[in-house]
């Protein structure tokens, strides 16, 4: 049995100014994504230039933050939102959704593509391999905050979280997600996109892989208390939102390669 390190969520405090580790992990994710994006932008097949990478990052950051917050409120806490609509703007209270952030980023990529005269799929295929860096960084932020822990377990690496409502050892599901959604996901997408692929194929692989990884981790992750299990005593909102991603991802890859073969 392990003990959560109980790291202070505030990394730097200067008077009333407090900088949280969670915010810093987002910053690291954006900066590393920007650096990797500039590397990809040097490829002869890149749809954007190195200079445009900075502008695109701004659009994507807006999509992540606004979409992530809106998605959390709508998908995971709609009851509280209906009772208090202003909670949508109280981002300092926490609450972000990957699936909402994905929708926000998709809109941002479409918007940016219009600005630079590129199609949505050109931008999406370019951006997809950069996303796991931010996902992995965000899961480290979740671990530091001691949030989104897993179900009780008796595995040797089970961990005691001071933020949990009991003294039971739990799966450190944040680290599972860091390993799958961050490290493994990045390796797969970076390798796959290192050569020119049919349009939509990289985006399809992104959707399918994330959907599978998230669906699997949800089996050991504690569901959100305000929702619990939606059905069968195991189906979670994360799985409901991830399954369509798997289907869409596989369909996109099949379509991309079939169209390319014609």
Automatic annotation (TrEMBL):
It is a multi-pass membrane protein. Pathway: Protein modification; lipoprotein biosynthesis (diacylglyceryl transfer). A 1,2-diacyl-sn-glycero-3-phospho-(1'-sn-glycerol) binds at residue 139. GO terms for molecular function: phosphatidylglycerol-prolipoprotein diacylglyceryl transferase activity. InterPro entries: Lgt. The chain crosses the membrane at residues 19-36, 57-76, 96-113, 120-140, 175-193, 200-217, 237-257. The keyword ATP-binding does not apply. Its EC number is 2.5.1.145. Signal peptide: none annotated. Its main location: membrane. Keywords: Cell membrane, Membrane, Transferase, Transmembrane, Transmembrane helix. The keyword Plastid does not apply. Belongs to the Lgt family. This is Phosphatidylglycerol--prolipoprotein diacylglyceryl transferase.
């Amino acid at each position: 049995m392990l003990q959560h390190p109980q790291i202070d969520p505030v990394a730097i405090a200067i008077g009333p100014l407090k900088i949280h580790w969670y915010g810093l992990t987002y910053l690291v994710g954006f900066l590393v994504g920007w650096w990797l994006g500039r590397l990809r932008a040097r490829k002869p097949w890149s749809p954007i230039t190195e200079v445009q990478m900075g502008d695109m990052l701004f659009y994507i950051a807006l999509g992540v933050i606004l979409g992530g917050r809106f998605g959390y409120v709508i998908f995971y806490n709609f009851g509280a939102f209906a009772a208090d609509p202003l909670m949508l703007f109280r981002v300092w209270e926490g609450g972000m959704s990957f699936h909402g952030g994905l929708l926000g980023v998709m809109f941002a990529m479409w918007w940016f593509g219009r600005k630079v005269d590129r199609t949505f799929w050109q931008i999406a295929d370019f951006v997809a391999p950069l996303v796991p860096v931010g996902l992995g960084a965000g899961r480290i932020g979740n671990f530091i905050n001691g949030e989104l822990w897993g179900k009780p377990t008796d595995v040797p690496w089970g961990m005691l979280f001071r933020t949990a409502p009991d003294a039971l050892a739990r799966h450190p599901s944040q680290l599972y997600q860091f390993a799958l959604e961050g490290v493994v996901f990045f390796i797969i997408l970076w390798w796959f996109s290192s050569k020119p692929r049919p349009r939509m194929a990289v985006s399809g692989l992104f959707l399918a892989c994330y959907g599978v990884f998230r669906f699997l981790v949800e089996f050991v992750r504690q569901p959100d208390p305000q929702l619990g299990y939606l059905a069968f005593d195991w189906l979670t909102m994360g799985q409901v939102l991830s399954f369509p991603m798997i289907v869409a991802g596989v369909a996109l890859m099949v379509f991309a390669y079939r169209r390319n073969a014609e």
